[in-house]
UniProtKB/TrEMBL annotation:
Gene Ontology molecular-function annotations: adenylate cyclase activity
Organism this protein belongs to: Corallococcus interemptor
Cited PROSITE patterns: GUANYLATE_CYCLASE_2 (PS50125)
SUPFAM superfamilies referenced in this protein's UniProt entry, alphabetically: Nucleotide cyclase
SMART domains: CYCc
Annotated ranges, domain Guanylate cyclase: 342-483
Signal peptide boundaries: none
Protein's UniProt name: Adenylate/guanylate cyclase domain-containing protein
Cross-referenced InterPro entries: A/G_cyclase, Adenylyl/Guanylyl_Cyclase_3/4, Nucleotide_cyclase
Length: 536
């Protein structure tokens, strides 16, 4: 502790020595009892001050320090003559004379870190040198007991505040931005020379992402700002880096003390990711406690983040998910909104016959549909589309959502390109021996799809208890009816699609050929469907 500026040389009589020991013991007992009862600072000072006033023979006692919310306050007891004690304690340390009496003040600190100010007010003018010396020594004894307790309170409060700040940052809808803020906030309070977050991709669990920080600042990140040594380790070890100790990663951070905290998921056996921190000098217990708390919070945040990515991956390709989650208000893109969209319905030709005559058990049907639909959805995503849903063996795609940044011509182009690709890969499957044999059994000339494409207004967004991304409109119904009219390996497009494609300058589109305009009445649709057949 830093002594008061006017602290006298220590010349103790036996009587004073006994008094100071008793004063220290009483102060210590009062503070221990308060800590044991888990009292607030207000309750603590209310317990201690009356007894200390009696032992010190003083008129008033006060402490200025930060409360549990880290807000500076002054607590006082006794007669201060109507004067605010905090104002008096803000003056120079040592002895000072006021209208209310003689004030002795001393800084409360631990290892040079100030935690507050203690002041004791005595009635009347200052006494002789000996009296002042005894009072200052008594003040020093009380201060020695108080400053350690206050440091504990402040440390716990600072830790709590820091944890709240990090939690608030991690609540950011943009996970990466929240992570950057949390690490920066942590590094401002504790020494954090190196920090690595390594975590699984929610949709592709075999893929690892990372973010590394130097003194709280982002240094490397997978994708846009890669670090060569870490990329090499990922290539060599893959997800094995998440298991066991940090031995492999220690070699990456050669010469540093490394501590790893595994982020585990309660609902799965595989780890979500790992935190690794490193420093030449190691970490204090205070720092490690904060890092562990951050790891626990981050574990839950990753679970939530992954859950959202997995949900979105049912409808959108990875690029669209990344773009969505980079927007703090990404939910606005998913709210119901009416837009003109490209609509695609693709259904396997003769699927009922294939199921009934081509397969000997439902499991094989499921495998067949899984493979075909996965490839069909990939073609929709490849052209910027959204996978709406699957009805039986019919795959439905939307073009325009979720950002609606393209015009109607681009949306029509994308829908027709996806239709052509689905037709092409489905026909190519007929070249596989097992598929060819299947087609022979059910007496089909090969594997094909019937496709209907429309361009119409629809209400698009997340709907229903499962929050699925879909669209509703008469245009969706028209596309479904159009698809049912299509024959073997045939693509039919509505008149709206044909008209939009006329405005396209794309060489691919300019080469497309269509049959004549056809009008087909269909059940439960007021007007006949006006459509064109896309020539092979």
């Amino acid at each position: 502790m830093t002594p008061a500026p006017s602290s006298p040389p220590v010349e103790l009589s036996l009587e004073e020595y006994r008094f100071l020991r008793q004063l220290g013991r009483v102060t210590d007992d009062l503070l221990e009892e308060s800590l044991r009862e888990r009292e607030t600072l207000t309750q603590c000072f209310r317990r201690c001050f009356p007894t200390l006033l009696q032992h010190l023979g003083a008129r008033g006692i006060a402490v200025t320090t930060r409360d549990e919310e880290l807000v500076e306050q002054t607590w006082s007891e006794g007669d201060w003559g109507g004067v605010f004690a905090g104002g008096l304690l803000a003056g120079p340390m040592g002895q000072s004379v006021h209208d209310t009496g003689t004030l002795l003040t001393q800084t409360l600190d631990v290892a040079g870190s100030p935690v507050g100010t203690l002041g004791v007010l005595y009635a009347g003018p200052p006494g002789d040198v000996g009296t002042t010396a005894k009072r200052l020594r008594a003040l020093d004894v009380v201060a020695e007991e108080l400053d350690t307790v206050l440091m504990l309170v402040h440390t716990a409060s600072e830790k709590h505040q820091l944890i709240l700040q990090c939690n608030e940052h991690l609540a950011n809808p943009v996970f990466e931005a929240g992570m950057d803020h949390a690490v920066r906030t942590l590094a401002q309070r504790v020494r954090l020379p190196g920090f690595l977050l390594l975590y699984r991709d929610a949709v592709q669990p075999h893929v690892l992402h990372y973010r590394t920080y130097r003194h709280g600042q982002l240094e490397y990140e997978s994708g846009e700002q890669p670090g060569a040594p870490l990329e090499s380790l990922l290539h060599q070890h893959g997800t094995r880096l998440l298991h066991g100790d940090a031995g492999v990663l220690k070699r990456l951070f050669d010469g540093r003390t490394t501590e790893a905290v595994l982020i585990s998921a309660a609902t799965r056996s595989e780890p979500l990711g790992k935190i690794v921190v490193w420093s030449n000098e190691g970490f204090s217990a205070y720092a490690m406690d904060l890092i562990r708390v951050l790891a626990s919070t981050l574990s839950q945040r990753l679970l939530d983040y992954n859950r959202e990515r997995i949900h979105l991956s049912q409808f959108f390709p990875t690029g669209a998910i990344d773009a969505l989650l980079e927007d703090p208000d990404y939910a606005r893109h998913l709210r119901a909104q009416e837009q003109e969209v490209g609509i695609l319905f693709a259904d396997i030709n003769g699927f009922t016959r294939i199921c009934e005559q081509g397969f000997d058990n439902p499991r094989n049907i499921g495998r067949f549909v899984d493979e075909w639909s996965a490839r069909a959805v990939d073609r929709i995503w490849a052209h910027g589309g959204v996978f709406d849903k699957m009805v039986g063996d019919c795959v439905i795609g939307l073009f325009g959502p979720p950002f609606f940044q393209t015009d109607r011509v681009r949306r029509a182009e994308a829908a027709v390109r996806a239709a052509q690709d689905i037709q092409a890969f489905t026909a190519e499957l007929s070249g596989r021996e097992e598929v060819a044999a299947l087609c022979r059994r059910v007496k089909l000339p090969g594997l094909g799809v019937a496709v209907g494409v429309n361009l119409a207004s629809a209400n698009c967004g997340l709907f229903g208890p499962n929050r699925n991304y879909t669209a509703f409109s008469s245009g969706m119904n028209q596309a479904a009816r159009l698809q049912s009219l299509a024959g073997f390996r045939e693509t039919l497009v509505m008149e709206s699609v044909h008209e939009a494609l006329k405005q396209s300058q794309e060489p691919f589109v300019r080469k497309l050929q269509f049959g004549p305009l056809t009008e087909t009445p269909v059940k439960n649709v007021a007007q006949p469907l006006k459509h064109y057949r896309l020539m092979p």
